[in-house]
Write the structure tokens for this entry.
Amino acid sequence: MNRLLLAALTCTMAFSANAQERVLNLYSARHYQTDEALYANFTKATGIRINRIEAGDDPLLERVRNEGANSPADVIMLVDAARLHNAQQTGLFQPVKSALLESRIPADLRDAQGHWFAFSTRARVIVFNKAELRPSDVATYEQLAEPGLKGRVCTRSGSHPYMLSLVAAMTEHLGEQRAEAWARGVVANFARKPAGGDTDQITAVAAGQCGAALTNTYYLVRLMKSNRPQDREVVAKVGVVWPNQAGWGTHLNVSGAGVARHAPNRESAVRFLEYLASDDAQRYFADGNNEWPTVKGVKIKNDALASMGEFKADNLGAGVYGRLTPVAQRIVDRAGWR
Ligand SMILES: [Fe+2]
């Protein structure tokens, strides 16, 4: 055998050995420590190794766009319905046909063509300082803009996806003009300039720096489950309401994923999505990160999450959030909700 042929053969063998080691390139914007176990269990069950690229939604999406057809991304996981919708609109996902995913994930929590699937939900609730306010003072999102709460409202930046989706929902319900008036009212009620994340708003409410704030449920439940004395103290001081129960319901958002358009490991990617819809993985979203599973009937072991009880949810769907997010961004900009 001549040397060149041997070299070529060795090269082919090395390549196929490589190809046999199954990998999955996961681009994830989820930012929760507890997700580690979620990924480890997938590898244990399938032998597929996960290469994880983690970044915020925007940098992550920009990276996939820049990589174009050469992108190694197999699965893209995002938080926020509008992001999922926009990623789909800009062609970052490919459609997936999976009887398992279609039967497990309710139709309103996935794209009809299978570009993405929601695997967990979270609600945006109002927390308030129990020594200062009553639940009836903050029973609706609209009340956060009422003059009675002047100097009492804390929020994170209006440009954050969690806020933009809420403002998009308000825009859908109220129309752009009234939604902007609402945003201006909230800004006029600020106790302080928007700063920090949702947990910072909860602790500021407990400390009496603000009377009320908005947060995703899992941040609150995380504090409820904590054994740290300072967290227990925070939880003791704040009350929580499901906003707009007498009306359109409490704003619901999702975390989800889809198979990347140019996925080099498509089969592993679909398998990973199917794994995320399994009872075990669904339990992780609930028990690990305090989100609600999207698969119905999954038994969870999270007393704090369960203690929050049932509520009427406003799930307008990713299409609405996606379509109205640019409007929401203009509203928060004009209102000075920075
Ligand atoms: Fe978050």
